[in-house]
Design brief:
531 residues; alpha/beta; Nitrilase/N-carbamoyl-D-aminoacid amidohydrolase; 6-stranded mixed sheet; 16 helices
Length: 531
């Protein structure tokens, strides 16, 4: 290992760039559908050794001195994000005649931008770099800050955060209830990078020992949590939900001539009798934008829905909602969730808050209009965003928190609302991404949100993966990708967590401060160490 570390550390030029690029791409194997977390113990030590050898000219300014470290982090991030997010390009091919030109931007441009955060992380870490195990702490703290910034700047995109590599299955997800996603990014980098110390001597016992202790505690707590029985739920409050997964090709969803067929397919799956003769579903769930027209402009559609529902049943469906004002301007469109009762009445609705840039709306829209660019999945003029999330209260008193599409990936999206809800309803349409890692990555993050909030997640996707997930991230029942049909399942109970989201966020910032202080004072002791 010492020879490998020396080779990586002393590499230069294009070889150094290529090593960083490949190490980042290799790290993407931690992500779904692979979930091979062990590769993190290879990729991150290589990153450490690369930073060891990334010394800038000491006679230049601080930015020039940190530039080699920034380049290493950027190359590592480029490899990681291209390998982990290339599938976004598939959405450009659904309407290839209009959007194929943007394929390079999706496959290379977005990863190149996201890689800037990892370049920032390695540059900040190098600022506090030493030759002992504390440099691992500096790197972990820098990555924690970079991932936090990636989740909030420019509307945020925390997809495939490095901490997710340490949580491939429920046993390794439970630590989220104690420290949350932000702190998990710090802990994951510290654990993954620790083997680098074995090859570089100083501080190896302390660093590897700390990483081993954290990893053991991570696994041990997960085992303990999974052994705890779920809170009992009174029989009279047990609700059965039906997830309708129609698997309608995205091109067909966009074809006006197919709208009636699309609607009828949803109705047919809604009316289907249970094969086991069990209790009829209390709620029927359709995916995001499953109603293929403006519902309030088609009263006959509400009649058809009422005919498909049995007395007392509730339909929760994704649809486009429109709203006009008295000024006569163009109507506003919202990506919404409707709650419809068995009489065909709309009794509740919620609009999407966190829209997808360039997918559902165009930032700086006037500029893009001048060059005839439009959002990929938006209505004319783009979607409008709701100002805040709110809970949907069902007629039976159950409280459901709706999250539409990728809103489920944001750890801080719901704030304190999660503590007031009984379950999360996540409606999405992953048909845009085809048979790629995208649907599996999206589904995985829904499981993480279930653990982090202590709420069951009822997830319905047009093409899959649809499932009922309990508050420990375990799949109760589900339909695989591209499996047309429906499932009926009881909604699991929620779990009251020991720590709320605000406390876990406080712990994250305390962890960040601790990492910075340890790295800073260690660095100062090296700088002012007497000869």
């Amino acid at each position: 290992m010492e020879r490998l570390a020396a080779y990586v550390t002393l590499s230069s030029g294009w070889k150094r760039f290529l090593i960083a690029l490949l190490a980042g791409a290799f790290a993407a194997l931690m992500l779904p559908p692979f979930g091979i977390f062990l590769v993190g113990f290879i990729s991150f030590p290589i990153l450490v050794w690369l930073i060891d050898g990334a010394s800038g000219d000491p006679d230049r300014g601080i930015l020039r001195r940190l530039l080699p470290s920034f380049r290493i982090g950027w190359a590592f991030g480029l490899g990681y994000f291209v390998a982990g997010l290339w599938w976004i390009g598939n959405s450009m091919l659904v309407e290839a005649d209009e959007f194929a030109w943007a394929l390079p931007l999706a496959v290379l441009g977005l990863p190149a931008f996201l890689a800037l955060y990892y370049g920032l992380a390695t540059a900040l870490a190098r600022l506090l770099w030493t030759d002992g195990f504390v440099r691992i702490i500096a790197l972990a703290g820098a990555f924690g800050l970079a991932e936090w910034l990636r989740g909030i700047l420019f509307t945020g995109f925390p997809w495939n955060a490095v901490g997710q590599g340490l949580m491939p299955f429920p046993l390794m997800m439970q630590s989220l209830t104690l420290i949350g996603s932000h702190s998990m990014n710090v802990v994951a980098v510290l654990i993954f990078a620790a083997p680098a110390l074995i090859a570089t001597g100083r501080g190896a016992k302390a660093g590897v020992g700390l990483a081993l202790l954290l990893f053991t505690a991570h696994i041990g707590f997960g085992y303990y949590q999974l052994q705890l029985a779920m809170p009992p739920k009174e029989k009279e409050n047990q609700r059965v939900v039906r997830l309708v997964q129609p698997v309608i090709d995205q091109a067909a969803k966009l074809d006006d001539s197919e709208r009636t067929s699309v609607f009828e397919q949803h109705l047919a799956l809604t009316k289907a009798a249970r094969a086991d003769g069990g209790k009829r579903p209390d709620y029927v769930i359709w995916p995001e934008t499953s109603i293929p027209f403006i519902l309030t402009q088609n009263p006959d559609a509400l009649v058809r829905i009422a005919d498909a529902l049995e007395d007392g049943q509730i339909l929760i469906a994704g649809a486009v909602r429109t709203e006009s004002d008295s000024t006569g301007q163009e109507p506003r469109y919202y990506n919404s969730v409707y709650v419809i009762d068995s009489q065909g009445q709309i009794i509740g609705a919620a609009d999407k808050v966190h829209l997808v840039p360039f997918g559902e709306y165009l930032p700086f829209e006037d500029f893009w209009k001048q060059i005839s660019v439009k959002a990929i999945a938006a209505m004319p003029g783009g979607y409008s965003a709701a100002t805040q999330h709110h809970i949907l209260v069902m007629p039976d008193g159950n409280k459901l928190l709706p999250l539409i599409c990728y809103e489920i990936i944001f750890p801080d999206e719901t704030g304190e609302l999660a503590s007031q809800a009984d379950a999360i309803v996540n409606l999405t349409n992953d048909g845009w991404f085809g048979y790629t890692p995208g649907p599996w990555q999206h589904f995985f993050q829904a499981r993480l949100r279930a653990v982090e909030t202590g709420l069951p997640v009822i997830r319905n996707s047009n093409s899959g993966i649809s499932a009922v997930i309990n508050a420990k991230g375990e799949i109760i029942s589900g339909l695989g990708f591209q499996s047309k049909g429906y499932i009926d399942a009881s909604i699991p109970t929620k779990i009251v967590l020991l720590l709320d989201s605000r406390t876990r966020t406080t712990y994250f910032w305390l962890l960040e401060c601790m990492a910075v202080l340890i790295a800073f004072f260690t660095r100062m002791s090296f700088v002012f160490k007497p000869n």
